[in-house]
Every structure is written in C-alpha cells, then in structure tokens.
Amino acid sequence: MQDIGRLKDNREFCDEDGGNDIILKIKEDSTTTIYISESYFYDIFRKPPLHGLGWHGFTRDYHEHKGAFNYFENDNMAEMSNSMEYLEDMMQYKDKRFRYEETRAVFDLIADFLKYAIDTKQTVIVKVE
How far apart are the first and last CA of the chain? Predict the structure, then answer.
C-alpha cells in the first residue's frame, strides 16, 4: 500500500505570494488534497510536445484553457474524467530539465497523486484559485 501522508492537505508547493494555485483533490476524500503554485505548472507544461499527435491531459487543459483552466466557466473547477490520461500526459515531461529546482519534487508529487487516484479508483477534482 502506498504511503499517502504527503497527499493529505499538502501545501508545501503553494503560492504564498498571492498567485494562483492549482488544487488537486480526491472527490471522495477532501483531505487528500495538494496545492501547487501555478508557476510550477508553467515550468512543467511550458514548451509542450509538438509531435502532431494532439494534446491531452494537463497539456491540453493548460494550453487550450479547458476544464479548470477555462477561466470563464465552471468556477475554475473540473472533474477529471480519465486520470490515466492526465498521468500519461505528465509522463511526457519526466525527462525534461525544469527551470526551478523544486519542480522535480512537484512533478513527482502530482504523478503520485494521480497514481493513487487511479489505484484506488477515485475521482480527481482540479481547481484553480
């Protein structure tokens, strides 16, 4: 069984300067929540792959302003219909060199969060605030 202690109300990487946070929350257990500064999302998802296969998961949502990143609908909140799609999308960036040293830890935290949701068959809610 996976140690989920660091997935419980984790604010280690939130933006303390008043910028946007991306919040990932398990719908069925609101205490399983991580808060990530949007600057880390930018570091991970900037310069997306241009392989012509289309964007998926966070890459699509972040760059095309869909789901929780659609600032004009849904109160900046969306339910992930397919967490595996988002995890597979994340893995495209696993070998990327990030601008910020902490981004690697953020990347691993998000990946672990998604793996936990998939393994336990729970729903992820994404909120931008």
Answer: 32
Q: Are 6 and 106 in contact (CB under 8 A)?
A: no
The model's pTM is: 0.93
Distance, CA of 8 to CA of 32 (rounded, Å): 4
CA–CA gap between residue 117 and residue 129 (Å, rounded): 22
Least confident of 52-56, 58-62, 63-67, 75-79: 52-56
* Region label for 27, one of left (φ > 0), alpha (ψ between -120 and 50) or beta (otherwise): alpha
What pLDDT does 78 receive?
95
pLDDT score for 2: 63
Q: Which helix (H) or strand (E) holds 37?
A: strand 29-37
